[in-house]
Amino acid sequence: MSGENKKTTKTGYINKNNQRNAGKTDMRGTDHGQYLYAMECLNCGHKYFANGSDIWFRKCPECQGGAK
Known about the structure:
3 strands, single chain, mainly beta
């Protein structure tokens, strides 16, 4: 990943666990004031949702034991 894409809520951001932010949804998140973001695991291809505040540390629920 190049240095210009460090903001975790920016579409395309890839966190340290190889999870890519695929974009913001219109769905309200579970944390106060948050929206859900579509996430994709670049290891196994699993797609899931995460609060914007959680993107930086999320792990895949399928192959890394992350929260479901």
